[in-house]
Amino acid sequence: MPAAPSPVIDLNAVTQTFVSSDGSPVTALQDVDLRLRRHEFVSLIGPSGCGKSTILRLIAGLLRPTSGEVRIFDLPVTEPRDEIGMVFQKPTLLPWLSVLDNITFPMKHKYGRVDEKDLVRARELLAMIGLQDFGHKRPDELSGGMQQRVSIARSLLHDPEILLMDEPFSALDALTRDEMSFELLRIWNERPKTVVFVTHSIQEALLLSDRIVVMSARPGRVADIIDVPLARPRTLATLADPRFTQMANDIRVQVFSRKPE
Ligand SMILES: Nc1ncnc2c1ncn2[C@@H]1O[C@H](COP(=O)(O)OP(=O)(O)OP(=O)(O)O)[C@@H](O)[C@H]1O
């Protein structure tokens, strides 16, 4: 039998301790093991403060683990890398730049210039997110959902293999949130990526993911990893599937019955 391909993202016995402002240690993560296959969509859910964002920062190379190891494509993570795109809760667009310039900003920042091919790609991405007529607008002329679309487009400019998303839709209203979930699925379908998606919404995690990682309260540990067997492409009909409702209920019970350790 051929050997299984190495995971794209590999967290091996990762413990992360911070020093809080009063000098006391805070163990955010304890012995976290997590492996993601290529083009897998995995969500992290768990109580506030259980270390979900810390996991993203470790994968992004913005943080070095106190102990254990984080590997990307079989190499230890030592610094931020180009294969990774990040999307945060807030759009974090630069208000004085146009939408198009915001999308190309990472290239400008890194290389001091924007190539024609980056501009072409930025326009393609704008079209992909349905904002082809908004390239010249300033961010404050766009709705919150549109701004978040722009920041997703920005994270995709260099076509990263890995996309890290930290509650990207939590600041949006419920309708826009559902719309954005389907939009993200469409983008992921068109340009497959390995995605780690942090959310507090069980429904969002179920709709989007291949697997859901349930974390325990601080110090964050992997309490369970749940396979989501719902067929793809996921559509509005998925939300009405009785298995969806059943799984959402089961996960809710699991998350809420977990007491802090
Ligand atoms: N730089 C830091 N210095 C000190 N403590 C930190 C630091 N970063 C995170 N922490 C602490 O580590 C723990 C985990 O934080 P993290 O932001 O990863 O949690 P989270 O699960 O993403 O929370 P939320 O769901 O509320 O966003 C928290 O107790 C937080 O206060």
Q: Explain this structure to me?
A:
Residues 9-242 form the ABC transporter domain. InterPro entries: AAA+_ATPase, ABC_transporter-like_ATP-bd, ABC_transporter-like_CS, ABC_transporter_ATP-bind, P-loop_NTPase. This is ABC transporter ATP-binding protein. The structure is a single chain. The protein is α/β, with parallel strands linked by helices and 261 residues long. Helix content is 35%, strand content 23%. The protein has 8 helices and 10 strands. The protein has helices at 52-60, 99-111, 116-128, 144-156, 174-190, 202-208, 236-240, 242-256; strands at 9-19, 25-36, 41-45, 67-72, 75-76, 84-87, 162-166, 194-198, 211-215, 222-227. The chain has a 6-stranded mixed sheet with strand order 6-7-8-3-9-10, with helices on both faces. Strands 2-1-4-5 form a 4-stranded antiparallel sheet. A hairpin with a 5-residue loop joins strand 1 and strand 2 (25-36). The mean pLDDT is 92. Adenosine-5'-triphosphate is lined by residues 18, 20, 26, 28, 48-54, 218.
